[in-house]
Amino acid sequence: MRSSNRLIFAVKEMGPKMQEVANALRLDTELSADSAAYIEELYEQYLTSPTSVSDDWRTYFDKFPKGDQPHGAVREQFLLLGRNANRMTPVVSSSVSTAHEHRQIGILQLIAGYRNRGHQKAKLDPLGIAKREEVPDLDLSTHGLTKSDLDTVFNTANLAIGKPEATLGEMVDAMEAIYCQSIGAEYMHIVNTAEKRWIQQRLEGARGQYGLSVEQKKNILERLTAAEGLEKYLGSKYVGAKRFGLEGAESFIPMMNELIQQAGAVGCKEVVIGMPHRGRLNVLVNTMGKNPAELFGEFEGKALHKKGSGDVKYHQGFSSNVMTAGGEVHLALAFNPSHLEIVGPVVEGSVRARQVRRKDIGGDDVLPIIIHGDAAFAGQGVNMETFQMSQTRGYTVGGTVHIIVNNQVGFTTSNPKDARSTEYCTDIAKMVQAPIFHVNGDDPEAVVFITQLAHDFRHTFRKDVVLDLFCYRRRGHNEADEPSGTQPSMYKAISQKATTRTLYADTLVQQHIVDRATADRMIERYRADLEAGKHVANALVLEPNKKMFVDWKPYLGMDYTDDWDTSFSLERLKELGKIMHERPEGFELQRQVEKVIDERLKMQTGEIPLNWGAAEVLAYATILDDGYLVRISGEDVGRGTFSHRHAKLHNQKNGQEYLPLCHIKENQPRFALWDSLLSEEAVLAYEYGYATTQPHALVVWEAQFGDFVNCAQVVIDQFIASGETKWERVCGLVMLLPHGFEGQGPEHSSARLERFLQLCAEDNMQVVTPTTPAQMFHLLRRQVVRPLRKPLIVMAPKSLLRHKEAVSTLNDLAVGQFKTVIDEVDTLAHDAVTRVVLCGGKVYYDLLAKRRSCALENTAIVRVEQLYPYPEQRIAEVFASYPNLTDVVWCQEEPKNQGAWQFIAPQLFEGIAQTERAIKLKFAGRKVAAAPACGSPYLHAQQQNQLISDALAIEAE
């Protein structure tokens, strides 16, 4: 056993059997209370999971009797001594029988059993049809106890019921009330002792009594009336219309109300909510304060979107302000599509942006609440990614309250064995040791109590917490669906069941808290308010404090334009270049990195041309200098996947990090650079949420390789490409996607340019293929300096990062703007040019080198740096400048069925037609293929040589 000077034991205070074993183990002769507490924690871990303790402790605990005899007699004696050290008297004297000692140990094991597995006996299912297995750990006989011991007084150990001794019967009654009624608490998987003890004190101190006042109970009934009232009204007025109603889960509305009020009471200023479509209309009206008349207009098809497609009513977001005991709180319900759970990381990113604005990262100013469906929570991998982000430096928001509206059925899958491989849908949350509180939705008082506890846990420990609201779905997946075809037993029980509101009203009438007439008047009053088009949310602020949220007006209403001056003072550029080279005294760089940084100083002060990394970092410096926040995240962004950025430096002596961009000037805007966890979907969604919340910023996400963005396709399709047209949510997020065919095989060549172009319409985003450092510099600056927020998709280079031709001068950065099209750079006689090769990206340099080596005077090479919005006018000007043009070739490295060809060909055909000249349009590139590229370097080189030759109309070598 591991030795420690703290482990000193009082052999003289042990019973004879105890002394014998202790002496055999050669233990010392005095005990400290701290040591006993430490051992107690180890022993509780051992009882829960033997493998959770170290090998030496497990070997020690394993020595004690198994089977019907209680575990660890000596160890439990130590625990009892430790728990009562403050009393300075032995718990068990030599006069107490060994049998009683063993029963006392059994008490400890029984307490551990209730804490670990009491939730498995809890009455969670409002329908009463869920089958639950017997839990042996809650049986007296498992721990060497019998019913005859119920009247015997035992030490209560650390069971927080307010007294040191009680009969076994009292303890069992208390633990049944605490752990086996309407609340099932899972928290013993938490390693942190303080968190675990805190939860124990709150749960066990209440002993199943929730302590709600008469006024609180009336408020619960009023909110249940609102929840049920809206659904009944919509069901009768819009028969058969989809609304994904909340019927069966009405306690969700009192839960939300309580959560918001509790947050406001401790100083929260903003609450950001993400939720699926079920119950969304109810939240919009009864929690957020949307005017019912507006909702009715949407049902009747009268509400038209100002621009674009719009979206269905149960995907819409909303914002409002409500009053709480702690002051005004801004509520924001995030827009989201039907793609399950994807709104979660979007909300987290939005919360982080708000916390940054309030200078309270991970604090109390902004609270995220994410609502989930039970089947989706267990089944969607993005939840695992989001949990994994929750405590990382670049993505933490100080804990999220997760609410599962647990219908106990996923669409038509009612058998949990088909929906997941775990007992509960919430088990995924254990990966971050979040406490999980299951609660019966038909006990609204328990719902309110556990909501308070969950909020206070997040407030105290800054960690995620899960509320699992066990309820049911009174109707099918939607109101046009007939659920009894797939769940006959469940819906037979539902059809015979009174609503939660009815049951609670009956309870309050029986308790003489309200009379029947008062309860009925609540229903009538709510319906009358709906019909009158009045706001029905509690504490709604009709004239909100506008300082609580960002004003987006400067970024709205501007028509798209490519032209924008992004020049910057040459002298200030040189100053910033010098600052980029500075670092703390004694800061030792790795040899190759030091060479890069030293060479970069010459580039950034104008001595030699700039490469890509130098220009990019300088762009960030100028943006910060202009007063804009900059946030960059992704896998390996500090260094850059291809070791070109080096914006984060590492001291070789002690691992200390230093970011020169954080030291541009005093009181500069925040610069954040975060190497992310290995996730695309959740991280990209997070950055989207951040960018849609913070307009005065450059927000960048970089893929490690461009093709990795495939893993985040749902974010691109449902948010980045269509968020503005569906929800009028503008977003300036930048995506850097390394793209280029360098013979690395199918998986590291293409960022799937064709997919982005297929999604382009209505000026929804920008897709670019920059070829020079200066272009990248101006492109990044344009993204923030221009008061227009559109997603920017950059097909970023790989080999061009160090290409000898892909360089720019410092003056190129100081003067000018981003060019959507770059015409021929060599001196060619325009009237001699009969062939124009259009291209984008890295292939340009291959074409240029070949054209020069062949001394072709009739072929101009033109770079289309921006594919969308398509630069129609600039390309028309290029065509017009070559009077004898007969052939236009689009050249790309990608296969013909991929890349830009299928997008740009119709544009070029139309543009050529408008010239009214006999110009032919041709394609040069790889043949159609199922994979983006070949796996053989030899074959790659052959294909590359052929497409270059095809483009230039020369014989392939």
From TrEMBL:
<dbReference type="GO" id="GO:0030976">
    <property type="term" value="F:thiamine pyrophosphate binding"/>
</dbReference>
<dbReference type="Pfam" id="PF16078">
    <property type="entry name" value="2-oxogl_dehyd_N"/>
</dbReference>
<dbReference type="GO" id="GO:0006099">
    <property type="term" value="P:tricarboxylic acid cycle"/>
</dbReference>
<dbReference type="Pfam" id="PF16870">
    <property type="entry name" value="OxoGdeHyase_C"/>
</dbReference>
<keyword id="KW-0560">Oxidoreductase</keyword>
<dbReference type="Pfam" id="PF00676">
    <property type="entry name" value="E1_dh"/>
</dbReference>
<keyword id="KW-0786">Thiamine pyrophosphate</keyword>
<protein>
    <recommendedName>
        <fullName>2-oxoglutarate dehydrogenase E1 component</fullName>
        <ecNumber>1.2.4.2</ecNumber>
    </recommendedName>
</protein>
<comment type="function">
    <text>E1 component of the 2-oxoglutarate dehydrogenase (OGDH) complex which catalyzes the decarboxylation of 2-oxoglutarate, the first step in the conversion of 2-oxoglutarate to succinyl-CoA and CO(2).</text>
</comment>
<comment type="similarity">
    <text>Belongs to the alpha-ketoglutarate dehydrogenase family.</text>
</comment>
<dbReference type="InterPro" id="IPR005475">
    <property type="entry name" value="Transketolase-like_Pyr-bd"/>
</dbReference>
<dbReference type="InterPro" id="IPR001017">
    <property type="entry name" value="DH_E1"/>
</dbReference>
<dbReference type="InterPro" id="IPR011603">
    <property type="entry name" value="2oxoglutarate_DH_E1"/>
</dbReference>
<dbReference type="GO" id="GO:0005829">
    <property type="term" value="C:cytosol"/>
</dbReference>
<dbReference type="InterPro" id="IPR029061">
    <property type="entry name" value="THDP-binding"/>
</dbReference>
<dbReference type="InterPro" id="IPR031717">
    <property type="entry name" value="ODO-1/KGD_C"/>
</dbReference>
<dbReference type="InterPro" id="IPR042179">
    <property type="entry name" value="KGD_C_sf"/>
</dbReference>
<dbReference type="Pfam" id="PF02779">
    <property type="entry name" value="Transket_pyr"/>
</dbReference>
<dbReference type="GO" id="GO:0004591">
    <property type="term" value="F:oxoglutarate dehydrogenase (succinyl-transferring) activity"/>
</dbReference>
<dbReference type="GO" id="GO:0045252">
    <property type="term" value="C:oxoglutarate dehydrogenase complex"/>
</dbReference>
<dbReference type="InterPro" id="IPR032106">
    <property type="entry name" value="2-oxogl_dehyd_N"/>
</dbReference>
<feature type="domain" description="Transketolase-like pyrimidine-binding">
    <location>
        <begin position="610"/>
        <end position="803"/>
    </location>
</feature>
